[in-house]
Amino acid sequence: DVKVTQSSRYLVKRTGEKVFLECVQDMDHENMFWYRQDPGLGLRLIYFSYDVKMKEKGDIPEGYSVSREKKERFSLILESASTNQTSMYLCASSLQGGGANVLTFGAGSRLTVL
Amino acid sequence: AQSVTQLDSQVPVFEEAPVELRCNYSSSVSVYLFWYVQYPNQGLQLLLKYLSGSTLVKGINGFEAEFNKSQTSFHLRKPSVHISDTAEYFCAVSELDDYKLSFGAGTTVTVRA
What we know:
- The structure holds two protein chains of two kinds.
- Chain A is 0% helix and 51% strand.
- Chain A contains no helices and twelve strands.
- Chain A has strands at residues 4-6, 10-13, 19-21, 23-25, 31-38, 42-49, 56-57, 65-70, 73-78, 87-94, 104-105, 109-113.
- In chain A, strand 8 (65-70) and strand 9 form a beta hairpin.
- Chain A binds chain B through residues 4, 31, 33, 35, 40-45, 48, 50, 56, 58, 90, 92, 97-100, 102-103, 105-108, and chain B through 4, 6, 9, 31-32, 34, 36, 41-46, 49, 51, 90, 94-106.
C-alpha cells in the first residue's frame, strides 16, 4: 500500500512565524498535492506538483509556497503565519498523469496559529 | 472549471436503515467522479469512482453510486448502514487530463443505534 506520511499531526505556532509542513510518500508517485480542509468548505487545493522541481498553483495559493526537491517529498511553507491559516492541512499523492488517478492521503496536520 | 455541490451537510440515520448522500457537479466537459470517506482522526480514503462504462458503480463497504449525466449527479447509497459508517463523506470531480480534483463541502453521516 502507498503510504503518505505527514511529519506533524499537531502544530501550534505564533503569528508571523515561518512554518514548514513536510510530506513524504513511499511509492514513487509523480503527483503530489497540498489541500486545506475547513468545516463547511471541504478540501481546497493550495498547490500541486507533477514532477520534481515543478509546481502549480491551486485554488488558494496566497500566503503559501511549496518545495519539491526530491520526488518523494513535498513541503508546504507558510512564510509568515497568520491566524486565518489555522486549519487542517492534507497532503496527497497520485500516480502519473491526470484526472483518473486516485489520491492517497496522509493523516493530516492540524495547524493552530495564535 | 468544475465545481461540486453536496446537498446535505449532516445526515443522521439509524443503524440498519438506508442512506443516500446527494452530489451534483457542474462542468462543461466530460468528468471523472469520486466519493471519498474520512473516518474520525484519519485522512481520506477512496470509496468508489466513476471513470466510464456502467453508470452504477460499486465500492467498498457495501456502498454504490449512480452517475446521471443528464442530471449531472453522482449520488451515493447504502441499503443498510452500520455504526462504523459514521464518517464524513466527500464527493469529488476532475476533468479529463486535469491534475486537479475539486471536492464538495462534505456530508457528515452519524449512525445511531
